[in-house]
Design goal:
162 residues, alpha+beta, seven-stranded mixed beta sheet, 7 strands, globular, binds tetrahydrodeoxyuridine
């Protein structure tokens, strides 16, 4: 039997160490939390999306009294970006969360379903999407979505490509 180790590299940094474009993306994710609709969890998540042409857009979580009908910030932001800019690749996404009027100290990372949607976008444009996870204490950077979802299911399996 063989063992294989899968590694992912994360970078930990402060806001002032980021390039201006990524600072603006984090700002957008934080701003997006203010427009989230989260009356049930009071957990306000914002996502900023940076497109290949420099456009920054975003979204936030949208909850529902019928809980499963709600949607996470990441998917709201990505579906918005992909529906409005269908021919422009996504370069990066930033995610921030607040509760009780305060941003979380540690970064939150996207749920499994959002990772799957992120992966589809990454594969769709054939370009890595950098993921920025914001926390007051530290910011985490992950070079590409595939790192967040090892052993994933994609069009490769569906169309028996590899
Ligand atoms: N949520 C997000 O929007 N993104 C995440 O990455 C984790 C969770 C939302 C879903 C729900 O509205 C609330 O946060 C609590 O789970």
């Amino acid at each position: 039997m063989q063992e294989k180790i899968h590694q992912i590299v994360t970078r930990i940094c402060r806001y002032d160490e980021l390039p201006q474009e990524y600072q603006a993306l984090i700002d957008e994710a934080k701003r997006q939390t203010e427009k989230s609709y989260a009356p049930y969890s009071n957990f306000h998540v914002g996502a900023g999306v940076l497109l290949a042409d420099g456009t920054i857009t975003g979204g936030n979580n949208q909850e529902n009294a019928a809980y499963p009908s709600g949607l996470c910030a990441e998917r709201v932001a990505l579906f918005h970006a992909n529906s409005q800019y269908p021919n422009v690749a996504v370069r990066a996404i930033a995610i921030a969360a607040s509760t009780g009027g305060k941003f979380l100290q540690s970064p939150i990372s996207p749920c499994g379903a959002c990772r799957q949607v992120l992966l589809e976008t990454e594969n769709r444009f054939g370009q890595p999407i950098e993921v920025l996870l914001y926390g007051e204490k530290e910011i985490l950077l992950i070079k590409k979505v595939a790192d967040l979802l090892p052993f994933n299911f994609s069009d490769k399996q569906l169309f028996n490509k590899e």
